Design the sequence.
């Protein structure tokens, strides 16, 4: 079983890295969030399956801002400086919806559902 566990772990690591973009955008579709709130939402919504280190999440959010998928405002921090609160931009919302339509709706097909 050790070999099988190793294979599964490798597959899951690759799968999860590819999923971070989708899950961060879904978190922001759910509502505006600062980085800590995004992390908490990911953990809660995926039952801990999708997590992100603070540094990784920061880079993702910065990249999304650079390519105009998200915007941010500032909110007073409870423990110090202002926090960035991220929202999906209209472009981010459209792109997320198109991705869902093209890549995730297939899982709603009855023949595919039976296999899950």
Sequence:
């Amino acid at each position: 079983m050790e070999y099988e566990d190793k294979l599964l772990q490798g597959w899951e690591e690759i799968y999860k890295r590819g999923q971070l973009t989708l899950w961060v955008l879904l978190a922001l579709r759910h509502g505006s969030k600062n980085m800590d709130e995004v992390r908490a939402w990911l953990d809660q919504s995926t039952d801990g399956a999708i997590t992100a280190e603070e540094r990784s999440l920061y880079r993702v959010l910065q990249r999304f801002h650079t390519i105009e998928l998200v915007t941010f405002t500032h909110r007073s921090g409870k423990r110090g400086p202002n926090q960035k609160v991220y929202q999906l931009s209209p472009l981010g919302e459209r792109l997320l919806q198109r991705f869902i339509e093209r890549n995730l709706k297939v899982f709603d097909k009855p023949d595919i559902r039976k296999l899950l």
Observations:
- The CA atoms of residues 40 and 97 lie 23 Å apart.
- The domain at 2-115 is CATH 1.10.10.10 (Arc Repressor Mutant, subunit A).
- The longest helix spans residues 2-30.
